[in-house]
Amino acid sequence: MTPTLIAVFIGSALLILLLGIPMARGKVPPNGLYGVRLPVTMNNRAAWDAANEHFGWWMIVSGLLSLGAFFLGSFLGWGVDSIATVYVIVMMLPLAFGAITSIMAAYRAESESKSKGVGGDSDLDASL
């Protein structure tokens, strides 16, 4: 395997993992570039926090599983095609599941915040 491929496999897994850490810790404020940006999350801080913290954990899982798949495949002597196939599957499945469940978490948090009378549209206006 070429050094370039090794860098791509490891680099992309680390990027996903490292971008997920601040999200999972609730350190990413509402913005237009980074995070789960849906109408519900952009208009409701509780929804933003719920969706991004939830998806951040799935990004961390995805990054760790991808690194594990790469190193396991390399250790076992798999070919590049086999490593790439398993790598993409173990990277994308947690991200897809995380995306779906993060949307659900956002709508659940929006509903709960509206029933409590907090986190409405004006909640994000000052931060954007």
Q: Quaternary status of these chains?
A: single chain
Low-confidence stretches: none
Total count of helical runs of at least 4 residues:
5
How many strand elements?
0
Q: Major β-sheet, in short? A: none
Number of domains: 1
Radius of gyration: 18 Å
How would you sum up the global shape?
A: elongated
Output the structural class. Answer: mainly alpha
What is the terminal-to-terminal distance?
A: 46 Å
Average pLDDT, all residues: 93
Helix share bin: over 70%
Share of β-strand residues? under 5%
Order of helices and strands: HHHHH
Description:
By secondary structure, this protein is mainly alpha-helical. The protein has one domain. The chain contains 5 helices and no strands. The model has no long low-confidence stretch (mean pLDDT 93).
TL;DR of this structure?
By secondary structure, this protein is mainly alpha-helical.
How are the SSEs placed, and which strands pair?
Elements: H1 3-24, H2 39-43, H3 45-75, H4 80-116, H5 122-125
Helix pairs in contact: 1-3, 3-4
Keywords:
77% helix, 128 residues, single chain
